[in-house]
Amino acid sequence: MNYVSHTKEYIFEDDRPFLSCHASTLELLPNGDIIAAWFGGTREKAGDVAIWTSHRRNGSWTYPVKAADEEDIPLWNPVLFLRDDGVLFLYYKVGASISEWVTMVIRSTDNGMTWSDPVPLVEGDVGGRGPVKNKPIVLQKGTLAAPASLEPAWDCFVDLSADGGETWVRSETVPLDHSGLLGKGVIQPTLWESEPGNVHMLMRSTEGAIYRSDSEDGGKTWCAAYRTGLPNNNSGIDLVKTDTGTLALVYNPVRPEEGKTKGPRTPLVVRLSVDNGQTWEHELLIDEGEGQYSYPAAIANGNDLLITYTWKRERIAFCRITIAE
What we know:
By secondary structure, this protein is an all-beta fold. It contains no helices and 25 strands.
């Protein structure tokens, strides 16, 4: 296995309608275009932070367009998901603080050119249901599984939908003994399914390593979260499973200093696994330098890995990596 090619570009450069941006997401559209979304405004948590989108068509990205906004209330962590019938979903959080998050969802039937009015994903939710950072996946039996987490508890769970995202049932919380931790715990899982009903997650943690949990009942219940050998700087990760079963993990391979719960958000790399995440090899550097290169989002299209990530909180970068197996 090796990397055939690696290209990088920016969705926008200095000409942008916001000072700061973060937490991107992307989806491949039926017409071959790519849509990306992120939150942008004066700074994270500011009241002017909105959700923005751009389309990549004919080799270039369109100028950012605002897709969702709330007056004087920050928006957070958009997640795109394309249903099999062509309906495009955009999930995002609304709230002055993370503990007050409400998950909203809008829909598009024209590839993200126009959107429906926002509605809560789960009526009455406070704290955040549905995907918290990374994309939902469709399990082999058709259930939609959305990787979720709660703060300030710093616990993970999965939201499950048997009707294409119309209604949701919360899984049990991933067991985790917080008493023995250096920091708060785990958040922002990313999911894959190895066999029908066997679902797995990797999680961001405060403990200097990526954590993992596994489910044997389609994501309804989970084993106790356990530490992997993969470093984690308490920053976002993402993973995608290719059509051939290879797992591609995008993350910052950084451990915090002794006694610390956070580390630098550089470099950003991708690594591959062909044994269901037991071992990871073939590291490829995506970006590095001063500042942060973080919060990746990844999808697959054949042998191509399509990745977006935060570039210094000033731009969203996009890269296409082709792998040969």
